[in-house]
Amino acid sequence: MPHIRLENIKKRFQDKMVLKDVNLDIEEGKLISLLGPSGCGKTTTLKIIAGLIEPDSGDVLFDNSSVLSIPVEKRGAVIVFQEYLLFPHLNVYENVEFGLKMAKVDKRKRKDKVEEMLKLVQMEGYEEKYPDELSGGQKQRVALARALAIEPKVLLLDEPFSNLDTGLRESMRDFVVEIQRKLNITTILVTHDKEEALMMSDKIALMLDGTIKQYGEPIKLYENPVDEKVADFFGRRNYIRGRIEKGKFISDLIALDTNEKKEGPVKAMINPENVELVSIEDIHHISGTVKMRKYAGDRVYYTVVVNGTELKCISKPNRLFNVGDKVGIKIDFEQLVFFDDLGV
Amino acid sequence: MNRNRSIIFKIIAYSAALLLLVPILIIIVWSFANNWPWPLVFPREFGIRGWEYFFSPTSNSISTLIYSILLSLTVTFITLLITIPASKALALYDFKGKKLVEVLILAPLIVSPVAVAMGIHQLFIKLRLANTFFGVVLVHLIPCIPYSVRILKNVFETVGDKFQIQGKVLGANPLKNFIYVTLPIISPGIISAASLVFTVSFSQYFLTFLIGGGKIITYPMVMFPFVQSGDRMIASVYSIVFIVASLICLRLMDRLLKKYYKRGDYFYI
Questions:
Q1: Cis before residue A88, ω within 30 degrees of 0?
Q2: A4-232: which CATH architecture?
Q3: What domains can you pick out in chain B, each with its CATH number?
Q4: For residues A168 and A225, what is the distance between their CA atoms, to the nearest angstrom?
Q5: Domain boundaries, given as residue ranges, for chain A
């Protein structure tokens, strides 16, 4: 399994700069996600790695040697597409066998490999079935087996779960992660689903507007985003405007000591799950009024107003407050992240 | 409401079937009618003179039929050979002058080749293609290609190139990709195109007549004089054989392709 590196990749389609300057370093055997909204260039990046698109400039390296001159069919980077794309004229066995046949592996070895792969994806007994007789999840498994059969250097998954129902999606995610760990194959997952990326990957590369905004472990991206755009991508956040002077953060809402090195106007980010609503009798806390409540079963979304500032809050449903209620608000200030206040 | 609709639907369906079947029934009856003057509903006298003539060695009907089928199969084969790549290019790639190429290819559908046949004839005489089998095949390509391109282009547009891309990332080189992925996936389209092209070629009269110069005799050419001279009995026999022969050929082509690609009927067409 190689170590994959993208260096200064740029790509322009007509007038649009799709990839501005993409750098990415993927350690061998890891599962990383390219996460971003549609149109951010993540699929283009994937296709560049596979060799389906040539970058305008920059380099793709597998184990420190450039693969740009190696054609798609010899590069060993297999994409599993969103629509699975099982060949409709071939049955399950022949589909999985396809890549091996193209590589001129002899028949007996092909048979062993296909059987091994079908066992891996738990699709034994389906050899004779045709793709139109399979369910979405089964197609996905076969597509995965077909890709893995040729022992690719890197496995590229392009939005692989977006065609599946919610329940199935979750079990397929676990299944893919399990297989990835078992085979220890370098895997790149393209997704627009933040939860998927957070739960599955060793590292996430968040792409916005053709660049990688932040690359790191899921916890890092969620808790320490580099800027507001990254922060907002992972969910709704609260921002409190204020300023830092001599190690003190001062705002309308609160003033507290901080070891943040920034000075001047800042925005402090507080995650809604770190805002807790408590009874108004609890006088140690800031007080506010509930403006909106959205009940989602396992959690409740509130919007509360404190001195004219709106705060979003996610809490457990064990104690419900009503719209208009006066409430006490407990904020976990340990988790504050400061961004420069650019005045927008 | 629903019932009314189904009644209307039935009426339309049955009348359509009737409109198609009645002429066929009539020629079947005609092929056995020695004497069927107007205004009798049934022929006055039945006989098998028509069929006897058709099967008699002197009429050469069967050898002409076989020759004609072979000619049309050759045309079909060459048309497919040209139009599969052409349609793929027109459907999936962008290149300069694409619109122009498309218009030129489809032109014979708008301007009948008969209109330019004389020019072609002159040219073929110079090229020594007139009065030859190959010349006739070539001239048949003109009306056949646009039909085939229209069908196959549609197929390529529907299927797209996603399966080829998948084939490519799985290690198939362009040739293998074409044989193992593209061809089987478009095979339903190939069957439709082949059927249509065969029929168009098999029914050509004027172009064959002109370019073949009487040396290349196809089935419609031996049939036509009977239709024109009013020997309806023999003309009917020829018509029936025409229909049956085309149906058999189409069926065989369909079987052959489907057998080769096992499952040809999965989608899109």
A1: no
A2: 3-Layer(aba) Sandwich (3.40)
A3: 1-47 (no CATH), 57-260 (1.10.3720.10)
A4: 30
A5: 4-232, 236-340
Contact B263 A50 (CB under 8 A): no
Please answer whether residues A288 and A311 qualify as being in contact, where contact means their C-beta atoms are separated by less than 8 angstroms. yes
Tens of pLDDT, residue by residue over A40-55, are 889 999 999 999 999 9
Structure tokens at A111: 């048979």
DSSP of B87-102, one letter per residue?
Answer: HHHHHH---TTHHHHH
Whether B261 sits inside 8 A of A89 (CB atoms) is yes
B165 contacts in chain A (CB < 8 Å): 52, 79
**Closest residue on chain B to A49 (Cα):** B169
Indicate the residue of B163, B168, B262 with minimum beta-carbon distance to A73. Answer: B168
Distance of CA B234 to the CA centre of its chain: 23
Mutate to test the interface with B, among A89, A104, A105, A154 (most CBs of B within 10 A): A89
* Cα within 13 Å of Cα(A152), Cβ side: 29
Angle CA A87–A98–B161, to nearest 5? 45
Contact at CB, B184 and A103, closer than 8 angstroms: no
Q: Please, what's the largest Cα pairwise distance for chain B?
A: 72
Chain B residues within an 8 Å CB radius of A73: 168-173
Which residue, chain included where needed, has tokens 């790639």? B93
Residues of chain A positioned with their CB less than 8 A from the CB of B172: 73, 98, 102
When pLDDT is averaged across residues A301-329 and rounded to a whole number, the result is 88
Distance between CA atoms of B26 and B240, rounded to whole angstroms?
A: 11
Instruction: Assess whether the region A4-232 and the region A236-340 belong to the same CATH fold.
Output: no
Residue from A72, A128, A188 whose CB has the most chain B CBs within 10 Å, to mutate: A72
| List of chain B residues with pLDDT < 50 | 264-269
CATH topology of domain A236-340: OB fold (Dihydrolipoamide Acetyltransferase, E2P) (2.40.50)
Q: How far is A129 from chain B (nearest CA, A)?
A: 12
pTM: 0.80
A·B CB contacts under 8 A: 66
Query: Given this model, what pLDDT does residue B266 score?
Result: 46
Can you tell me the distance from the alpha carbon of B116 to that of A38, in angstroms, rounded to the nearest whole number?
Answer: 53
